[in-house]
Amino acid sequence: MPDTHVAIEPAILYFGTPVVLISTQNEDGTANLAPMSSAWWLGWRCMLGLQTASKTPQNMIRTGQCVLNLASPEQVDAVNRLARLTGTGSIPDLKQRLGYSYEPRKFEVAGLTPIASQTVAAPRVLECPIQLEAVVAERHGIMNGDPQVAGLISAFEVRITRVHVHPSLLMDGHKNRIDPAKWQPLIMNFQKLYGVSGTEIVPSRLAEIEERAYRMPDVDRAREEALRPALAAC
């Protein structure tokens, strides 16, 4: 079979990742909320690619905390309302060129509801079907070898401390498993927003492995940390 591929140089390589609304706490105790999609998970860890000077990563550096609110297609209008807003009063040059404007009242503008988290100070987004409370584990510079962009982009490794899921997403007969046929994430694919189908194309051989085989120590660590305040009060 002949190779019919062509070599191209696209400006971005965003082949499709879920939309995350990251909530963080500002210096004055108010909440910041920002959409992003450069995120991927492994176990109870998540990697987040963010422009370092933006309000969200600055809050994460200062507080060491955040909440990853996973959006479904039902939140698409809220995501668009947030898309070109920034909580930074002094807007970075890049965001100025991209047409961003300053807005400190992100929840109100998006029409979303903040609710209290259990392990971090930043609020969760009530409307999002999945909410992951998290603490910052590591921060890694990206493209530090290029003097033109060194220090501008960071990858944050966060550790999940509490998972909140709407009951409608749970797999029948399981209290700790999400049914992939029920969970429909909002996907950012080359700057455009898409939903996903709930139909499995073919049975996956990986699905033959029991999900518990992938359980990592972070799950027990999060449970132990949640018990510490209660034990201290005894």
Automatic annotation (TrEMBL):
<dbReference type="InterPro" id="IPR002563">
    <property type="entry name" value="Flavin_Rdtase-like_dom"/>
</dbReference>
<dbReference type="Pfam" id="PF01613">
    <property type="entry name" value="Flavin_Reduct"/>
</dbReference>
<feature type="domain" description="Flavin reductase like">
    <location>
        <begin position="15"/>
        <end position="168"/>
    </location>
</feature>
<protein>
    <submittedName>
        <fullName>Flavin reductase</fullName>
    </submittedName>
</protein>
<comment type="similarity">
    <text>Belongs to the flavoredoxin family.</text>
</comment>
<dbReference type="InterPro" id="IPR012349">
    <property type="entry name" value="Split_barrel_FMN-bd"/>
</dbReference>
<keyword id="KW-0285">Flavoprotein</keyword>
<dbReference type="GO" id="GO:0016646">
    <property type="term" value="F:oxidoreductase activity, acting on the CH-NH group of donors, NAD or NADP as acceptor"/>
</dbReference>
<dbReference type="GO" id="GO:0010181">
    <property type="term" value="F:FMN binding"/>
</dbReference>
<dbReference type="InterPro" id="IPR052174">
    <property type="entry name" value="Flavoredoxin"/>
</dbReference>
